[in-house]
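Tokens as discussed.
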């Protein structure tokens, strides 16, 4: 048995070794039960072990072990709450990374159905589908626009993406094209308060383009220079979460080189405090943690050290030495706002920076820190819909109870889940700030 979360370890992909480690961790989790409330994976695990009089985790079958793996959507919240994590306990238990190890090992060892392969491809090849969707946005948006419609049912049948999920429409003009064509001078001199290398993510490059546009405008309104280096691709999270490490590394290596070069360029030009700003939590987590684990090397470390969430960056500017955000808000500021804190942002342990940012406007904030059941692309798969919506019930109930005038959330996919469960459409915090400043939506 090897206690390892290092994908370069010679035993990492050894299934026999993995099974022994699953037994060890499942036994520890069964004895603790602190994470019973987060998802179905833990209740399933506890039920399987409780079926045996001696409660021996070693008696679980491979299928039972694998069902726990399949039901874990890697929200990473159990890691935050676990008292036995590496560096804190001799047991060195890291459940989310063990689940990733299992997914990746089983991806290599287990035969996948044609339907599963099609679903994996549809969810993972985001740059391909994004380019096609943007080029054919008029037709594509009519097809995906209405959940439960016949076209969406056909898509579910063909590639396994739930027909009930609310999917963001494709933008006719990609964000990178807008950024390149726009007419704006970079802040300079006394007006300059920082510099950000933007990692807009595939979701906001092709679909939710208003979010990175608002990010740029809010940043520049506050004296932050924005760079968008060419050559960025999908962060690779869908491949990683499916278990396809090789595909993940190919994408990650491209991003690491592009972003590391951009950081070095900015530093050479005198901007020592330059940061990488990411406006989607899952992608930010990948840049901060997963690239270090699966790619490694000085460039991956450099990228990780300089990566921030988009709102986190602005709070850093506001609290910086000699820098401060503008606090005159001439635009629309709701009296009350509910802020949904996404799991993959909470897992970064940076605090509720989006909340802190929006508080500057004077809106009265309520916090909902319940899982949306999406977590990457797990909740978009048709076979996971009922389980995911079961998880999201607590989130929906909390949002309804808050009964605020507006809702904000950093994760676009989680925001789609909020809309599905409540009928209310959230804003990204950077879009919220743009409207508060009086910056018009394009």
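Sequence:
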């Amino acid at each position: 048995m090897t206690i390892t979360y290092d994908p370069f370890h010679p035993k990492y992909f050894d299934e026999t070794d993995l099974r022994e480690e699953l037994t060890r961790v499942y036994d520890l989790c069964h004895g603790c039960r602190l994470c019973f409330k987060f998802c179905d994976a833990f209740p399933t695990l506890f039920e399987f072990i409780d079926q045996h009089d001696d409660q021996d985790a070693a008696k679980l079958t491979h299928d039972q072990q694998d069902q726990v793996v399949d039901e874990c959507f890697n929200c990473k919240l159990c890691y935050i709450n676990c008292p036995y994590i590496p560096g804190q306990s001799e047991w060195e238990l890291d459940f989310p990374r063990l689940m990733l190890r299992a997914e990746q090992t089983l991806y290599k060892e287990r035969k996948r159905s044609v339907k599963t392969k099609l679903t994996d491809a549809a969810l993972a090849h985001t740059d391909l589908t994004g380019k096609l969707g943007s080029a054919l946005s008029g037709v594509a948006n009519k097809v995906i626009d209405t959940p439960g419609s016949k076209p969406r049912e056909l898509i579910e049948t063909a590639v396994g993406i739930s027909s009930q999920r609310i999917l963001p429409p494709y933008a006719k003009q990609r964000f990178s094209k807008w950024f390149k064509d726009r007419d704006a001078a970079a802040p300079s001199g006394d007006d300059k308060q920082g510099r950000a290398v933007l990692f807009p993510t595939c979701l906001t490059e092709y679909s939710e383009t208003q979010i990175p546009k608002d990010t740029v405008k809010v940043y520049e309104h506050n004296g932050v220079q924005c760079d968008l280096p060419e050559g960025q691709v999908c962060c690779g999270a869908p491949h990683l979460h499916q278990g396809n490490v090789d595909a993940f590394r190919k994408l990650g290596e491209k991003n690491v080189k592009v972003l590391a070069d951009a950081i070095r360029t900015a530093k050479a030009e005198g901007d020592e405090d330059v940061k990488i700003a990411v406006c989607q939590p899952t992608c930010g987590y990948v840049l901060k943690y997963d690239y270090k684990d699966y790619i490694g090397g000085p460039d991956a470390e450099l990228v990780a050290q300089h990566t921030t969430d988009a709102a986190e960056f602005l709070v850093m500017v506001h609290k910086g030495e000699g820098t401060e955000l503008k606090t005159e808000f001439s635009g629309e500021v709701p009296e009350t706002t509910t802020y949904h804190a996404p799991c993959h942002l909470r897992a970064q342990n940076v605090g509720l920076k989006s909340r802190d940012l929006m508080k500057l406007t004077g809106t009265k904030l309520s916090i909902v820190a319940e899982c949306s059941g999406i977590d990457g692309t797990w909740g978009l798969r048709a076979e996971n819909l009922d389980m995911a919506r079961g998880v999201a019930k607590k989130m929906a109930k909390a949002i309804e109870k808050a009964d605020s005038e507006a809702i904000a959330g950093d994760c676009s996919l989680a925001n789609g889940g909020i809309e599905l469960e409540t009928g209310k459409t959230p804003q990204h915090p950077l879009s919220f700030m743009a409207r508060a400043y009086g910056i018009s939506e394009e």
